[in-house]
Amino acid sequence: xxxxQLAHFLRxxxxxxxxxxxxxxxxxxxxxxxxxxxxxxxxxxMSTDYYSRLEQQRGPQPSEQMxxxxxxxxxxxxxxxxxxxxxxxxxxxxxxxxxxxxxxxxMRILDRLQDTPAMxxxxxxxxxxxxxxxxxxxxxETRHTGLARSLHHRWFADPATRQLYPAExxxxxxxxxxxxxHAAYTRDGRGSRAAEIADALLAESPEFARLWREHPVPGxxxxxxxxxxxxxxxxxxxxxxxxxxxxxQTLLVFTAVPGSASDEKLRxxxxxxxxxx
Length: 277
Hints:
It holds the Pfam family MLTR_LBD. Residues 34-81 form the HTH cro/C1-type domain. It comes from Micromonospora avicenniae. InterPro entries: Cro/C1-type_HTH (IPR001387), Lambda_DNA-bd_dom_sf (IPR010982), MLTR_LBD (IPR041413). By secondary structure, the chain is of the alpha+beta class. The protein has 2 domains: 3-94, 434 Repressor (Amino-terminal Domain); 105-276, 2-Layer Sandwich (Beta-Lactamase), CATH 3.30.450.180. 46% of the residues lie in helices and 12% in strands. It has a 5-stranded antiparallel β-sheet, sandwiched between helices. A hairpin with a 5-residue loop joins strand 4 (233-243) and strand 5. The longest helix is centred in the middle third of the chain and has 19 residues, at 170-188. The chain is globular and about 55 Å long.
């Protein structure tokens, strides 16, 4: 671990970012460019004291998880993320798991959607980032670990996952999710993360096994969705998507018809989400 170079790299990247780049107001009292340490710490999900010690060449060696969080918070490119890992004394993450790293362009768009339910997911159904209204709508989907990180796995292995959706839509969701996982498996092959998820579900879920044998093919990437939210009740939402060029990540944005009951409920959820944060 090169403490001096790590500290200098973090400082230069922090000073290169502007508040507008991460969806923060500049404010009249800001005298210099770049982000403050506390802002980077908040974006990275860590304490200001911990981040400050890194820039001051103090504290313990950051873990791979902390470095990955810093890479997301500082909106680093893949090459910059790899360099950060090397400075932190860790091996460069293997490229086959690059879908864990949110594309900086995706993050810039997400930063400008903070009043809208929006999220970035990879091709395995793992949520990488959410806006506060998306957390209010769907819950914090980034908290999961292991196989449960994948919505494909949670849907078939954890009955509680389905409570947010009306019962009459469950069969459609099951087929769509099985089809998406099948496409990921076809793309990534044996020994991949997709294969690990599929193998686990084939052993755990008869419903998934039946659908898998049918070789389902994905239809619409994100059709209109119906939710049964515990706080605001029924919602009917449209889902717009933006696919990253390498198709490893997708930005999902949920909207409602203006003036509809669902639109009013989304506004209410935005307030609820802000209060929770």
